[in-house]
Amino acid sequence: MVKGGLTTRGPRNLLRQIREAMAGGGPAQDRLDMVVRTIAQSMVAEVCSIYLRRASGELELFATQGLNPEAVHNTRLRPGEGLVGEVARLAQPISLSDAPSHPSFSYRPETGEDPFHAFLGAPLLRGGRAIGVLVVQNRAARRYDEEEVEDIQTIAMVLAETVASGELLAQDELRDVEVAPHRPERLKGQKFAEGLAYGVVVQHEAPLAPEQLLSDNPAAEERRLAEALSALKAGIDDMLEGGQSKLGGTSFEVLETYRMFADDRGWNRSLEEAVRSGLTAEAAVDRVRNEHRARFAKARDPYIRERLHDFEDLANRLLRVLAGDNPGQRDLPDDAILVARNLGPADLLEYPRHKLRGLLLEEGSAASHAAIVARALQIPCVGRLQGLRDRLSEGDQVIVDGETGEAYLRPRPDMLAAVQTRMAVREQRRAEFDLLRDKPAVTKDGTRVTVLTNAGLAVDLENLDMTGAEGIGLFRTEFQFMVSDELPRLDAQTALYKLVLDAAGDRPVTFRTLDIGGDKVLPYLENEREENPALGRRAIRLGLDRPALLRMQVRALLAAAAGRELRVMFPMIATVDEFRAARELVDVECDWARRRGRPLPSLLRVGAMVECPSLLWHLDALLPLTDFVSIGTNDLLQYMFAADRTNPLVSDRYDPLSPPALRALAEIQQKCADSATPVSVCGELAGRPLEAFALITLGYTRLSAPAGGVGPVKRMILSADLPAARRGMAVLLGSSAGSVRGEIESLARKLNVSV
Fold first, then answer.
1. For FRET with 686, which of 122, 308, 332, 750 sits at 20 to 30 Å CA-CA?
2. Residue 54 DSSP class
């Protein structure tokens, strides 16, 4: 065999011959046979074979030059069987000088491959998945060199695209070849936002498929690639220098990482070599992206897997540069299910709400920005769905089950019918909640409970009237900062807060000052890298370190509330001194406004969020200084149990309905009652009926829930008898069990409480 790859006719000539064979008339098998003969001749190989994946997962021999022709369509390899199966499993080329001695070698006598020792196989990759394998073999025991491996990868890439496009196979053959996943699948993830939805897949920043694979002018394609790479890097440089951010909430550090990967020599060299082999610039980017996906997706190290996403995002961005595309808002189908690796809050808000039925994420957490926005918009969301995007194609039908944390891909008709029935039941329940909308939340024993809602976006204000919530118990002011490309000015902040107060009317609104830092990074604020940002400079710590930022926000709040009641609370207070310092800034701003004759709120109440366990032993000093407190159970419990709630590896290591958590909540409530300090719960627990049942049993009478939780929680309150519930809860607080969730459920059922 000739060393150094293809014969002197070169790879471009071979690709052109393959294209001519594919475009020719006649039966599909004749064209396939022509393709393998052409490849074998050009690579001076004694055997060339094409295997394609059937819907069953088996790899079937579709064409061969050099093996027994009778083996075509008769030889089928089980998933992972033989060297061909190993190439498909690894999604990487395999080159061997003596194939029969390899432990994965599988002998198939009908093929007649006994004399052949040298083996080179390359996967036909489509979306990072192997849909087939291209093999060349020779009698002599020798190892194929790097150029030959590069050549067969290029050929395999072209074959994969043409098989998927239908150019190479007859339609009856194509139907049973798995060019994309098509069987029903069920993926288990985590529920991020309650609800049920079904519709068709829309990929967030769906990769652009190259329209033309083979180049007629390689020199011109090299120039196009070089220009696109330069434009890509210049665009990232603009972002780094403070230009218009095209990545929304992506941090400065992430942009620097992007720039570093854009300069990666290996990535750039792979692109250049792919173009020189005869591919268009778009096809070269697509090929290199597929190779990276196949290689990195097998890695167990999360850091290495994250590098895959960096390169993939860069590849998608480079394809858009080559296409001259500057995508704005996409036109969605009426029943769109958005699929993404992860999303920032700005990304989700760019899509038309009335067409978005559900959201599926590969990553994220229930506390992520996308999940919070999804709950605010009442969009069912399931996350932590590993390998999701590789299992879906644009336009696939899918079910989002936000009740169980599952996704059903290409569901069977019976599954779809079952979900439609469940959705009808949910609609009936929603109608029941609507009837309770204007009814006061009073328990059977006459205890009045105030049910408020959480908000953070202008769209949330619609939920006040729709849900019957009695006000806003937590308005997250940071969302305005997170969805903006630059620091919101004083007038913009004032306008938003005034809009919120106007919408609420005479209903109370509690504004939480900026809770940024940790996992909420703003691209326009310089932040030092922290080893453990969840325990670092975030929330009130950042506000006190940058008093101008906090004072501007307080000034905007005072101006917006002129002549009306204003309730402000500070997040993540860990010490009494922090609260004193924050309250002094409010006093300074009040004095500033007073000296200038600016109108002030008719009543100003300043409170603290109890999120840090340190306050549990200093409430006697804190409560006399506050007008109210609110418990942020999300952070309080993650710090109590030292388990990051955004980390799926540890987020389920504790149950909020455990004796330690319940005892802490009971102690806070008792100390607030003793000091006559109003207290509310604004964490996620307040929006789940069973957890809310535990809270009111502990004595809490002010709950702030996500919009979707207001109706279910109110129904629970109306069915509860607190004296009987308290007797049962007192016993559970002394339990030594890690969780008493089951016991609380039994107690609720015994008392006929609707949880």
1. 750
2. B
Question: Is 369 annotated as catalytic?
Answer: yes
* Burial state string for 75-84 with b = 16 or more CB within 10 A and e = fewer than 16: bebeeebbbb
Residues constituting the chain: 755
Mean pLDDT score, 365-391: 80
The arithmetic mean of pLDDT across residues 460-484, rounded, is: 85
CA distances from 268 to 263, 286, 287, 320, 563 (A): 7, 13, 13, 17, 62
Helix (H) or strand (E) holding 545: helix 540-545
Task: Please give the DSSP secondary-structure letter assigned to residue 640.
Answer: H
Q: Is 715 helix (H, G, I), strand (E, B) or coil?
A: helix
- Containing 628, the helix (H) or strand (E) segment is strand 628-631
Cα 116 to Cα 517: distance, rounded to the nearest angstrom: 62
The answer to whether the CB of 161 falls within 8 A of the CB of 168 is no
Six-digit token string for 350: 């760019």
Cα Rg, the chain, nearest whole Å = 31
Cα angle value 656/660/661 (rounded, 5°): 35
Indicate which residue of 204, 369, 381, 672 is catalytic.
Answer: 369
Q: Is 102 a catalytic residue?
A: no
DSSP per-residue string spanning 85-109: HHHHHHTS-EEES-GGGSTT----G
Alpha-carbon gap, residue 385 to 376, rounded angstroms: 21
Phi, then psi, of 278 in degrees rounded to 5: 115, 5
In 518-616, the DSSP E strands lie at 565-570, 603-610
Which residue type, as a one-letter code, is found at position 739? S
pLDDT in tens, 295-342: 665 555 544 555 555 666 677 778 878 877 543 445 789 899 999 887
Active-site choice (381, 612, 672, 682): 682
d(C-alpha 732, C-alpha 740), whole Å: 7
- Whether 637 contacts 657, CB under 8 Å: no
For the chain, give the percent of residues with pLDDT over 90: 45
